Predict the 3D structure of the following.
Amino acid sequence: MPLSQEGITPGPATDEVALPLAGKTEVKMPQSVNFDFQTGLSEKYQLLGMVNARWVDWSNFNVAPPLATLSTQEPLAAYKKDGYAVEVVLGKQFNPKVSGEVRVGYDHGTGAPLSLLGPYDSIKSLGLSAQYKLTEQLSVSAGGQYMWFEGGPVDTKVDGRVASIDDGTGYALGMKLGYHF
């Protein structure tokens, strides 16, 4: 005999909803424009300058799998603003075997509210790297980059404000062994 509370006896569920567990989600990547410019700045001091700029049409991008959008009533990922990024690089050859560079970057992000899949807005970065030629064909490179992330609110249509992402920092380190032929 089923348990009851205050004279109400629960019965079998009658409002069952079938969830679509299979299906296709089509994702179209946004259009983008890249501008990469490189020039020698000083032959005497062996200086090289580079500017890299990128614009991405994120405002026309979204990822909306049927099961995820059924529960949240909104795309899994969608951005309100387009994104752009700029990076400036200054490189120097110290001698025929050793060269290095310093780079400064800014990625403007896609604006608040943020997405759980893209929890930071703008990113500022500073990087250093060096290369040493072991032989004419073999080189070793190493570098690091430090980044400052700007956080912000994460809102959904169903639950309102679900998170507030703090500003943060991070770093990346890399090393490469190159063979040139």
Q: What stands out?
A: The CA atoms of residues 10 and 152 lie 45 Å apart.
